[in-house]
Design brief:
Layout: E1 5-10, H1 14-25, E2 30-34, H2 48-53, E3 63-65, E4 68-70, H3 100-103, H4 118-132, H5 161-171, E5 178-179, H6 208-218, E6 222-226, E7 228-235, E8 241-248, E9 254-257, E10 259-264, H7 267-277, E11 293-300, E12 315-317, E13 334-337, H8 342-348, H9 354-361, E14 364-371, E15 380-383, E16 389-392, H10 397-416, E17 421-424, E18 456-457, E19 460-465, H11 480-497
Parallel strand pairs: 1-2, 1-10, 2-6, 3-16, 10-19
Antiparallel strand pairs: 3-4, 5-12, 7-8, 8-9, 11-14, 11-17, 12-13, 13-14, 15-16, 18-19
Helix pairs in contact: 1-6, 1-11, 4-11
């Protein structure tokens, strides 16, 4: 059979973009198929209405979520979530690779151990940190989280004065705050308060789009098609997938491309959706959808914090990662968050007058706990009647209970730094789906996993998955760095066999 490319990659986010970059750098011809467009140079990147209310750079599809149509905060441009994230790229703990030690009978025996170890990913973590320009302080105490033995490739931003106060006050009480490893170039960073959720105006924040564009500029064998919809993987009578059917979203023209290998990286909703549309029928396709349940607490200070006017997302706490002596249940990382802008504040707190919201914005600091939600087969992606994606998701009581226990611990962190009052968010947002994963998990046994340990589909040796869908559990940190590192690991294997 004649092939148009060695590898076709569906999606250009943390997994797909990194995977494509690695394959192209190794001399393999690569086609990236991206549903979104490229980031425009300039434009209203600091416009809160354009970015977050109208969701300009986000995925323009509506997804049926628990029976309601919603537009989700998912990256809708080349680079995926890495074009809009806050830049935190954090290594997980060794214990994340053996979830059975922490959850026991709460999860399936089949996923008590990941099919790979931390050591299998370690060199790829180092390479991903280099590619994305991660800056951090490896001499600080990260608690149970891993960090590079030889330090980070970049130097971190100077600490915001409020973060200095936060870290000092809590170190005095025996906690171990550390500076978040951030894929941000301090020399180009404008210290924007509008960072997470917004496009970066200077390119200081590392992204998969930057890797792809760098490969194109170098003349690597990589082709990028944007604003195209992958309708399905075309299967032959015997040989598995033989091509991919693509529709141009602007002209409606349909094209089929053939490759020696295919890599899905359309996200934990998009990748299983494509497989279901293509007629794949493994019972676990689309199941066990996860995204972290957030314990978000705002500390109100008696003075202006200036957190609403500068970059503030710099501090992490892993002290409760595996619980406490009084509550020995795994929870996850606590990290600082940017202050929401005036319009998002009005969306979240419409019951408060505008002057009160502004008063609070000038005097708050937000911290978020990322509680590792457990896989549940009932949380799943399925096909809607119109062929679109339908998402069913509910957090389990155990997930909600751990969030409830983490919330007062976060409030204590803020009060030690001077907060006089703390406000905790109790509702669940079904629009914000950061850190989604789990719908095509990898494993050794085909009865309990869709992918093998190399992230190749058990049912088709030519198809790989390199986005967060492969994760059997959701980790206690954001999965971005793990996704990128795994994409490099999988690319190494694909390049070798090609």
């Amino acid at each position: 059979m004649q092939h148009d490319f060695d590898v076709i990659v569906v999606g250009g986010g943390a997994g797909g973009g990194t995977f494509a970059y690695a394959c192209a750098r190794a001399g393999k011809s690569v086609l990236i198929l991206e549903r979104g467009g490229r980031q425009a140079v300039g434009g209203p990147v600091h416009d809160e209405r354009t970015m977050l209310i109208d969701k300009g750079p986000y995925d323009d599809r509506e997804v049926n979520v628990n029976g309601a149509r919603r537009r989700l905060y998912m990256g809708g441009l080349l680079g995926g979530g890495t074009s809009l994230y806050g830049g935190a790229l954090i290594r997980p703990s060794l214990g994340d690779f053996q979830p059975g030690r922490h959850y026991g009978k709460r999860i399936s025996r089949a996923i008590w151990d990941w099919p790979i170890s931390y050591d299998d990913l370690e060199p790829h973590f180092t390479e991903a940190e280099r590619l994305y320009g991660v800056a951090g302080c490896a001499d600080e105490d990260f608690g149970p989280l891993q960090k590079p033995a030889r330090g980070y490739p970049g130097k971190p931003l100077p600490l915001h004065p409020l973060n200095e106060r936060l870290m000092a006050a809590n170190r005095e009480r025996g906690l171990r705050p550390f500076r978040l490893p951030l894929a941000i170039d301090a020399a180009r960073c404008l210290r924007c308060a509008t960072c997470a959720g917004y496009l970066c105006p200077t390119g200081a924040r590392g992204s998969a789009a930057q890797l792809i564009e760098a490969a194109v500029d170098r003349g690597d064998p990589i082709t990028v098609r944007t604003r195209v919809e992958v309708e399905r993987l075309v299967k032959g009578p015997k040989a598995g997938v033989t091509s991919v059917l693509v529709r141009d979203r602007d002209t409606g023209e349909r094209t089929q491309y053939r490759a020696r290998r295919y890599a899905l990286a359309a996200g934990a909703i998009g990748s299983p959706h494509i497989l279901l549309r293509s007629g794949f029928d493994h019972p676990l396709i689309g199941r066990n959808y996860m995204f972290h349940i957030g314990a978000i607490v705002a500390g109100v200070f008696p003075f202006s914090t200036a957190a609403d006017a500068s970059f503030i997302k710099q501090v992490g706490f892993a002290d409760f990662y595996f619980g406490t002596s009084r509550y020995p249940h795994k929870m996850g990382l606590v990290q600082s968050l940017p202050v929401p802008g005036p319009l998002m504040s009005a969306k979240v707190m419409p019951f408060l007058p505008a002057p009160v919201r502004q008063f609070l914005r000038e005097r708050v600091l937000l911290l978020a706990g990322m509680v590792e939600d457990l896989p549940n087969p009932a949380n799943r992606v399925t096909l809607a009647a119109n062929g679109g994606a339908r998402l069913t998701h509910r957090y389990a009581r155990y997930d909600l209970a751990r969030r409830k226990r983490m919330t007062p611990a976060i409030a204590r962190i803020l009060k030690r730094a001077g907060a006089v009052y703390c406000i905790a968010r109790k509702f669940i947002s079904h629009e914000h789906v950061a850190h989604q994963c789990g719908t095509l998990r990898f494993g050794i046994d085909p009865a309990h996993s869709v992918l093998d340990p190399d992230c190749r589909m058990h049912s088709d040796p030519s198809v790989f998955v390199v986005d967060g869908s492969f994760l059997p559990t959701s980790l206690g940190v954001g999965p971005g760095l793990t996704i990128a590192a795994n994409a490099l690991r999988v690319a190494s294997g694909v390049v070798s066999e090609l």
